[in-house]
Design a protein that fits this description.
With 308 residues, this protein is of the alpha/beta class. The protein has one domain: TIM Barrel (Alpha-Beta Barrel). It has twelve helices and twelve strands. Strands 1, 2, 3, 4, 5, 8, 9, 10, 11 and 12 form a ten-stranded parallel beta sheet that branches. Strands 6-7 form a two-stranded antiparallel sheet. α7 links the parallel β8 and β9. α1 packs across α3 and α8 packs parallel to α11. The longest helix has 20 residues. It is globular, with a radius of gyration of 19 Å. 48% of the residues are buried.
Length: 308
């Protein structure tokens, strides 16, 4: 099992984030990721637009800052919404981030879900089947731009005409990840195109079920499931009040994934995800960041796994 930390960008500052990223890397975690929101992920935009619900740092700029602040961790995104940026914009951005990081960037893509953000900025929010077709097409566009000298696409949503993305990433194959658990389409897209797959806040038995569905799609696509890195985002909350402080109105939704209780209970819970097929566990942290809880995890849990 490998461990990372997923850092939310809401209700925080760049100074606080940079300090947190350095702390995470110093502890020996192997992954740090950012998300892609314009508002707090739990905010109802129309109600909270003038409150703390609108305090959220932009993802691409934060991703670049992560690359420049760290020196060894994988620098990921979980996940960029394909509705917010043309895939050629993302391809060029991630290439630069990979250059900045010395070849440590990972690009995660998703169909998007926070309808309030789309509405606030006048970005079209089509039905889920359309957004998923956008996702399928976008990941193919990005792959072509990152790997081919010239990319040509005449798709339903995106067009590339002798398009170039130069310079190329440092990595010969920069990992592209798909986020989400939709069993009919999202997991099929992951099976067809992704180097990695992530789902947040599900219990171990639900994770195992999703992974079985992914494997079935891989079989139909002629893909070896071992070629796809499998990860899960979990909440770290040694106490119930820690969970409430970070996730507020989303507490009940994320509780099935909470790492809580004694050190042994947390270790056992992580073991259940490993038994379910997870290869990476990412601790999903939001401000106010519980750095003491993170330090405890690094000392009591991460070190134990490193020894084993």
């Amino acid at each position: 099992m490998k461990f990372g930390v997923h850092t939310g960008l809401q209700n925080t500052s760049t100074d606080e984030l940079r300090a947190l990223w350095r702390r995470i890397e110093d502890h020996g975690f192997e992954w740090i990721s950012i998300w892609d929101h314009f508002y707090a992920a739990d905010a109802t935009v129309r109600e909270d637009a003038t409150s703390s619900g609108s305090v959220c740092l932009e993802a691409v700029a934060s991703h670049a800052a992560l690359a420049c602040t760290t020196s060894s961790v994988r620098c990921g995104s979980l996940v960029y919404s394909v509705g917010y940026r043309h895939p050629a914009v993302l391809a060029n951005a991630i290439t630069t981030i990979d250059q900045l990081s010395g070849g440590r960037a990972v690009l995660g893509l998703g169909a998007g879900w926070h309808q309030g953000e789309y509405a606030a900025y006048g970005i079209p929010f089509p039905p889920a089947p359309v957004r998923l077709r956008q996702l399928d097409e976008a990941i193919q566009c990005v792959r072509l731009l990152l790997t081919q000298d010239v990319a040509d696409v005449a798709g339903e949503f995106f067009r590339l005409d002798s398009a170039r993305c130069d310079p190329k990433p440092v990595q010969p194959r920069l990992p592209l990840w798909i986020g989400g658990g939709g069993e009919k389409v999202t997991l099929r897209i992951a099976a067809r195109h992704a180097d990695g797959w992530n789902i947040p806040f599900v219990a171990p038995d639900a994770y195992r079920h999703k992974l079985d569905v992914l494997h079935a799609h891989c079989e139909r696509e002629g893909r070896d499931p071992a070629d796809i890195t499998k990860s899960v985002n979990l909440t770290l909350a040694w106490r119930e009040e820690d969970l409430q402080a970070q996730f507020g109105g989303m507490t009940d939704w994320v509780r099935p994934s909470a790492l809580t209780g004694s050190t042994q209970e947390v270790v056992d819970r992580i073991g259940a995800y490993g038994d379910a097929g997870a290869e990476w566990v990412n601790l999903a942290l939001r401000a106010p960041f519980d750095v003491d809880g993170l330090d405890r995890f690094a000392t009591d849990v991460l070190a134990q796994h490193s020894v084993s």
